[in-house]
Amino acid sequence: MSEPEPIIEARGLTRHYRRPRRSLLRPGRAVPALRDVSFTIHSGQRFGIVGESGSGKSTLIRLLAALDRPTSGTVTFAGREIHGVPERQLGFLRRDLQVVFQDPTGSLDPRMRVRDIVCEPLVAHGHPDRAGRLAELLAAVGLPEDTARSYPHQLSGGQRQRVSIARALAPEPRVLVADEAVSALDVSVRAQILNLLADLVERYSLTLVFVSHDLSVVRHVCDTVAVLHAGELVELGPVDRVYRSPRHDYTRELIAAVPTVRSALTRFSREEPQQ
Protein backbone atom coordinates (compact mmCIF):
# COMPACT_ATOMS: atom_id res chain seq x y z
CA MET A 1 0.00 0.00 0.00
CA SER A 2 1.49 3.32 -1.05
CA GLU A 3 2.06 6.13 1.47
CA PRO A 4 -0.41 9.04 1.33
CA GLU A 5 0.83 12.09 -0.54
CA PRO A 6 2.50 14.92 1.37
CA ILE A 7 0.14 17.82 2.02
CA ILE A 8 2.54 20.09 3.99
CA GLU A 9 6.32 20.04 3.77
CA ALA A 10 8.53 22.26 5.90
CA ARG A 11 12.20 22.42 4.99
CA GLY A 12 14.82 24.23 7.06
CA LEU A 13 12.33 26.70 8.54
CA THR A 14 14.09 29.46 10.43
CA ARG A 15 12.50 32.65 11.69
CA HIS A 16 14.32 35.51 13.40
CA TYR A 17 12.62 38.53 14.91
CA ARG A 18 14.56 41.71 15.51
CA ARG A 19 14.29 43.36 18.88
CA PRO A 20 13.70 47.14 18.87
CA ARG A 21 16.77 49.33 18.54
CA ARG A 22 17.96 50.36 22.01
CA SER A 23 19.97 53.35 20.77
CA LEU A 24 21.64 54.67 17.63
CA LEU A 25 24.83 52.92 18.66
CA ARG A 26 23.16 49.69 19.79
CA PRO A 27 20.89 48.31 17.05
CA GLY A 28 18.31 45.71 17.90
CA ARG A 29 19.57 42.15 17.69
CA ALA A 30 17.95 39.23 15.89
CA VAL A 31 16.18 36.77 18.19
CA PRO A 32 15.57 33.26 16.79
CA ALA A 33 12.01 31.96 17.15
CA LEU A 34 12.55 28.87 14.96
CA ARG A 35 15.78 27.16 13.93
CA ASP A 36 16.05 24.82 10.96
CA VAL A 37 12.76 22.96 11.45
CA SER A 38 11.87 20.28 8.89
CA PHE A 39 9.04 17.75 8.70
CA THR A 40 6.41 16.34 6.34
CA ILE A 41 2.68 15.99 7.00
CA HIS A 42 0.83 13.50 4.81
CA SER A 43 -2.81 13.66 3.74
CA GLY A 44 -5.06 12.18 6.41
CA GLN A 45 -2.40 12.38 9.10
CA ARG A 46 -3.14 13.64 12.61
CA PHE A 47 -0.01 15.64 13.35
CA GLY A 48 0.58 17.09 16.82
CA ILE A 49 2.92 19.98 17.62
CA VAL A 50 3.86 20.19 21.30
CA GLY A 51 5.91 22.65 23.30
CA GLU A 52 5.76 25.10 26.17
CA SER A 53 5.07 28.81 25.78
CA GLY A 54 7.91 30.37 23.78
CA SER A 55 8.88 27.11 22.08
CA GLY A 56 8.01 28.41 18.60
CA LYS A 57 4.60 26.77 18.12
CA SER A 58 2.75 29.97 17.21
CA THR A 59 5.52 31.10 14.87
CA LEU A 60 5.45 27.73 13.12
CA ILE A 61 1.68 27.83 12.63
CA ARG A 62 1.88 31.36 11.19
CA LEU A 63 4.46 30.13 8.68
CA LEU A 64 2.41 27.06 7.71
CA ALA A 65 -0.63 29.30 7.14
CA ALA A 66 1.39 31.91 5.18
CA LEU A 67 0.59 34.58 7.77
CA ASP A 68 4.31 35.25 8.17
CA ARG A 69 7.46 34.68 6.11
CA PRO A 70 10.46 32.61 7.18
CA THR A 71 13.89 34.15 7.45
CA SER A 72 15.04 31.07 5.56
CA GLY A 73 13.58 27.74 4.53
CA THR A 74 10.41 26.82 2.66
CA VAL A 75 6.87 25.58 3.16
CA THR A 76 5.00 23.79 0.40
CA PHE A 77 1.29 23.00 0.47
CA ALA A 78 0.15 20.21 -1.86
CA GLY A 79 3.36 20.67 -3.80
CA ARG A 80 3.10 24.47 -4.15
CA GLU A 81 5.49 26.77 -2.32
CA ILE A 82 3.49 29.37 -0.40
CA HIS A 83 6.02 31.98 0.68
CA GLY A 84 6.79 34.84 -1.64
CA VAL A 85 3.46 34.26 -3.38
CA PRO A 86 1.17 37.33 -3.61
CA GLU A 87 -1.88 37.13 -1.36
CA ARG A 88 -4.21 37.25 -4.37
CA GLN A 89 -2.69 33.95 -5.52
CA LEU A 90 -3.14 32.19 -2.17
CA GLY A 91 -6.86 31.53 -2.54
CA PHE A 92 -6.22 27.78 -2.64
CA LEU A 93 -4.47 27.93 0.75
CA ARG A 94 -7.08 30.19 2.36
CA ARG A 95 -9.73 27.66 1.34
CA ASP A 96 -7.85 24.42 1.96
CA LEU A 97 -6.22 25.27 5.32
CA GLN A 98 -8.42 26.55 8.12
CA VAL A 99 -7.47 27.42 11.72
CA VAL A 100 -9.43 27.00 14.95
CA PHE A 101 -7.90 29.32 17.56
CA GLN A 102 -7.45 28.99 21.31
CA ASP A 103 -9.92 31.63 22.45
CA PRO A 104 -13.33 31.34 20.76
CA THR A 105 -14.47 34.58 22.41
CA GLY A 106 -11.67 36.55 20.80
CA SER A 107 -11.96 34.88 17.40
CA LEU A 108 -15.72 35.44 16.97
CA ASP A 109 -17.12 38.87 16.11
CA PRO A 110 -19.47 39.75 19.00
CA ARG A 111 -21.62 41.90 16.67
CA MET A 112 -22.43 39.00 14.34
CA ARG A 113 -24.97 36.24 14.79
CA VAL A 114 -23.79 32.65 14.55
CA ARG A 115 -25.36 32.23 11.11
CA ASP A 116 -23.32 35.15 9.74
CA ILE A 117 -20.11 33.96 11.43
CA VAL A 118 -20.39 30.47 9.98
CA CYS A 119 -21.50 31.69 6.55
CA GLU A 120 -18.75 34.31 6.21
CA PRO A 121 -16.37 31.90 4.40
CA LEU A 122 -19.26 30.63 2.27
CA VAL A 123 -19.95 34.18 1.07
CA ALA A 124 -16.25 34.71 0.35
CA HIS A 125 -16.07 31.53 -1.75
CA GLY A 126 -19.46 31.98 -3.46
CA HIS A 127 -21.16 28.88 -2.04
CA PRO A 128 -24.52 28.39 -3.83
CA ASP A 129 -26.53 27.01 -0.88
CA ARG A 130 -25.50 28.86 2.26
CA ALA A 131 -28.65 28.00 4.24
CA GLY A 132 -28.29 24.29 3.58
CA ARG A 133 -24.60 24.30 4.35
CA LEU A 134 -25.21 26.23 7.59
CA ALA A 135 -27.73 23.64 8.79
CA GLU A 136 -25.34 20.82 7.89
CA LEU A 137 -22.43 22.44 9.76
CA LEU A 138 -24.39 23.18 12.93
CA ALA A 139 -25.58 19.58 13.03
CA ALA A 140 -22.04 18.33 12.41
CA VAL A 141 -20.66 20.17 15.45
CA GLY A 142 -23.62 19.23 17.66
CA LEU A 143 -25.44 22.56 17.86
CA PRO A 144 -29.24 22.96 17.47
CA GLU A 145 -30.53 24.93 14.51
CA ASP A 146 -31.78 27.83 16.63
CA THR A 147 -28.15 28.53 17.63
CA ALA A 148 -27.91 30.29 14.26
CA ARG A 149 -29.84 33.27 15.67
CA SER A 150 -27.60 33.65 18.74
CA TYR A 151 -24.73 36.04 19.39
CA PRO A 152 -21.46 34.65 20.78
CA HIS A 153 -22.01 36.12 24.27
CA GLN A 154 -25.21 34.10 24.57
CA LEU A 155 -23.31 30.82 24.26
CA SER A 156 -21.10 28.83 26.62
CA GLY A 157 -17.38 28.48 25.99
CA GLY A 158 -17.81 25.00 24.54
CA GLN A 159 -20.60 26.15 22.25
CA ARG A 160 -18.51 29.07 21.01
CA GLN A 161 -15.69 26.70 20.15
CA ARG A 162 -18.15 24.51 18.24
CA VAL A 163 -19.14 27.61 16.25
CA SER A 164 -15.45 28.26 15.52
CA ILE A 165 -15.06 24.70 14.28
CA ALA A 166 -18.18 25.01 12.10
CA ARG A 167 -16.81 28.18 10.52
CA ALA A 168 -13.46 26.49 9.85
CA LEU A 169 -15.22 23.55 8.18
CA ALA A 170 -17.46 25.78 6.03
CA PRO A 171 -15.20 26.06 2.93
CA GLU A 172 -14.51 22.28 2.99
CA PRO A 173 -10.80 22.51 3.82
CA ARG A 174 -8.29 19.74 3.38
CA VAL A 175 -6.32 20.69 6.51
CA LEU A 176 -7.72 21.73 9.89
CA VAL A 177 -5.28 23.45 12.25
CA ALA A 178 -6.35 23.43 15.91
CA ASP A 179 -4.13 25.99 17.67
CA GLU A 180 -4.47 25.30 21.43
CA ALA A 181 -8.16 24.86 20.61
CA VAL A 182 -9.13 23.25 23.94
CA SER A 183 -6.73 24.85 26.43
CA ALA A 184 -9.17 27.66 27.39
CA LEU A 185 -12.00 25.21 28.16
CA ASP A 186 -13.00 23.38 31.32
CA VAL A 187 -11.70 19.82 31.52
CA SER A 188 -15.10 18.18 30.91
CA VAL A 189 -15.83 20.41 27.91
CA ARG A 190 -12.29 19.87 26.66
CA ALA A 191 -12.93 16.13 26.45
CA GLN A 192 -16.10 16.70 24.42
CA ILE A 193 -14.35 19.02 21.94
CA LEU A 194 -11.45 16.59 21.54
CA ASN A 195 -13.88 13.80 20.74
CA LEU A 196 -15.73 16.09 18.33
CA LEU A 197 -12.52 17.00 16.49
CA ALA A 198 -11.55 13.34 16.19
CA ASP A 199 -14.99 12.49 14.79
CA LEU A 200 -14.97 15.36 12.28
CA VAL A 201 -11.47 14.54 11.04
CA GLU A 202 -12.63 10.99 10.41
CA ARG A 203 -15.96 11.97 8.85
CA TYR A 204 -14.55 14.54 6.42
CA SER A 205 -11.20 12.79 5.76
CA LEU A 206 -9.28 15.82 7.01
CA THR A 207 -5.62 16.26 7.78
CA LEU A 208 -5.31 17.54 11.35
CA VAL A 209 -2.52 19.74 12.72
CA PHE A 210 -3.10 19.92 16.47
CA VAL A 211 -1.06 22.37 18.53
CA SER A 212 -0.84 22.05 22.31
CA HIS A 213 1.42 22.42 25.32
CA ASP A 214 0.00 19.14 26.70
CA LEU A 215 1.40 15.92 25.30
CA SER A 216 -1.36 13.83 26.90
CA VAL A 217 -3.99 15.76 24.94
CA VAL A 218 -2.06 15.27 21.71
CA ARG A 219 -1.85 11.57 22.42
CA HIS A 220 -5.64 11.36 22.43
CA VAL A 221 -6.17 12.81 18.94
CA CYS A 222 -2.88 12.47 16.99
CA ASP A 223 -0.87 9.66 15.46
CA THR A 224 2.38 11.66 15.06
CA VAL A 225 3.96 14.32 17.26
CA ALA A 226 6.66 16.95 16.79
CA VAL A 227 8.17 18.36 19.98
CA LEU A 228 9.49 21.93 19.88
CA HIS A 229 11.89 23.38 22.44
CA ALA A 230 13.41 26.87 22.23
CA GLY A 231 12.62 27.01 18.52
CA GLU A 232 14.17 23.64 17.67
CA LEU A 233 12.51 20.38 16.68
CA VAL A 234 13.89 18.02 19.33
CA GLU A 235 11.71 14.94 18.73
CA LEU A 236 9.49 13.63 15.94
CA GLY A 237 7.73 10.33 15.63
CA PRO A 238 4.64 8.20 16.29
CA VAL A 239 2.90 9.63 19.32
CA ASP A 240 2.66 6.34 21.25
CA ARG A 241 6.38 5.70 20.80
CA VAL A 242 7.29 9.23 21.86
CA TYR A 243 5.01 8.99 24.88
CA ARG A 244 6.31 5.56 25.97
CA SER A 245 9.99 5.98 25.08
CA PRO A 246 10.94 9.66 24.72
CA ARG A 247 14.44 10.18 23.37
CA HIS A 248 15.00 13.78 24.43
CA ASP A 249 15.26 15.12 27.99
CA TYR A 250 12.79 17.92 27.23
CA THR A 251 10.15 15.42 26.05
CA ARG A 252 10.61 13.46 29.27
CA GLU A 253 10.10 16.68 31.23
CA LEU A 254 6.87 17.40 29.33
CA ILE A 255 5.51 13.94 30.06
CA ALA A 256 6.39 14.22 33.75
CA ALA A 257 5.11 17.78 34.21
CA VAL A 258 1.85 18.17 32.30
CA PRO A 259 -1.56 17.24 33.74
CA THR A 260 -3.47 14.46 32.07
CA VAL A 261 -7.00 14.60 30.66
CA ARG A 262 -7.33 10.81 30.72
CA SER A 263 -9.71 10.79 33.69
CA ALA A 264 -11.93 13.40 32.04
CA LEU A 265 -11.93 11.48 28.78
CA THR A 266 -13.05 8.40 30.69
CA ARG A 267 -15.85 10.20 32.54
CA PHE A 268 -17.29 12.19 29.67
CA SER A 269 -18.30 10.20 26.61
CA ARG A 270 -19.57 11.48 23.29
CA GLU A 271 -23.12 10.99 24.59
CA GLU A 272 -22.73 13.49 27.44
CA PRO A 273 -24.84 16.67 27.10
CA GLN A 274 -22.85 19.45 25.43
CA GLN A 275 -21.74 22.49 27.39
TrEMBL record:
Organism annotation = Solihabitans fulvus
Q: Biological process GO terms, please?
A: transmembrane transport
Q: Its domain of life?
A: Bacteria
Annotated family = Belongs to the ABC transporter superfamily.
The chain positions of domain ABC transporter read 8-255
List UniProt keywords, sorted A-Z: ATP-binding, Nucleotide-binding, Transport
Q: Which GO terms describe its molecular function?
A: ATP binding; ATP hydrolysis activity
Is ATP-binding found in the keyword set? yes
Matches recorded under CDD domains:
ABC_NikE_OppD_transporters
Protein name listed in UniProt = ABC transporter ATP-binding protein
